[in-house]
Specification:
Elements lengths: L2 H10 L4 E2 H11 L8 H13 L3 E9 L2 E8 L1 H28 L11
Antiparallel strand pairs: 1-3, 2-3
Length: 112
């Protein structure tokens, strides 16, 4: 699963959102590293909808413009949990390997 898709699902995990809300949430969740473009967002939403992980929630008119809200499905939540667990396990392995590489202090105090 791409990082963009993971962020879209994460953004929708607690409430339905419209496109701009998802873009803003993804940027915040990524600490500003990821800024979803409109084409990327709606491409991801189309794929997620086709896969049954996201579905339209409702349409609202705001300042004369239509906003479509999306919500995560139960299958989407399951996939998000599974992907979050995979990412967590991978990060744990990476950090363990980095820690293993660090030089250990010499208990004898020698500087050989």
């Amino acid at each position: 699963m791409s990082e963009q898709t993971f962020l879209v699902l994460t953004a929708l995990a607690d409430q339905p959102m419209h496109g701009y809300g998802i873009v803003s949430a993804a940027e915040e969740l990524s600490g500003g590293r990821v800024r979803l473009r409109v084409g990327t967002l709606y491409g991801a939403l189309d794929r997620l909808t086709a896969d049954g992980l996201v579905e339209p929630d409702r349409d609202e008119v705001h300042q004369g413009r239509l906003r479509r809200y999306y919500r995560i499905t139960d299958a989407g939540l399951s996939e998000l949990v599974a992907e979050g667990s995979r990412r967590e396990a991978t990060a744990r392995v990476a950090l363990d390997r980095v820690r293993a590489r660090r030089p250990r202090p010499d208990p004898g105090g020698s500087t050989a």
